């Protein structure tokens, strides 16, 4: 097989879709190879490239099992626990801080109140 067909941005023919577009339709590539690429030119850098897959070869997304739902819920709950104070922050802890905002930016008034 030769080189992949390259289409300009927004000019891909019907029958091709990116992974996100397939997912929005409830499909996945299903092991097929990249069928084409999409390029968006940029001024000072190389072009943005998106891989396209054939829609007719795509297969339905596998359904979520109860075990997967439980694992996902457990992982999301772990992202809410502060490693420093071990409390549920009520939101996903930012990776830039690595702890809840209460631990990252302690209020000086809290130390006065506790005395």
Outline the structure in words.
With 115 residues, the chain is an alpha+beta fold. The chain is built from four helices and six strands. The protein has helices spanning 19-24, 66-78, 101-104, 108-113; strands at residues 6-8, 16-17, 27-28, 36-40, 48-54, 59-60. The strands form two sheets. Strands 1-4-5-2 form a four-stranded mixed beta sheet. The protein has a two-stranded antiparallel ribbon with strand order 3-6. The protein is elongated and about 70 Å long.
Could you list some keywords that capture this structure?
single chain; alpha+beta; 6 strands; 25% helix; 115 residues; two-stranded antiparallel ribbon; 4-stranded mixed beta sheet
Layout: helices, strands, pairs:
Elements (H helix, E strand, L loop, with lengths): L5 E3 L7 E2 L1 H6 L2 E2 L7 E5 L7 E7 L4 E2 L5 H13 L22 H4 L3 H6 L2
Parallel strand pairs: 1-4
Antiparallel strand pairs: 2-5, 3-6, 4-5
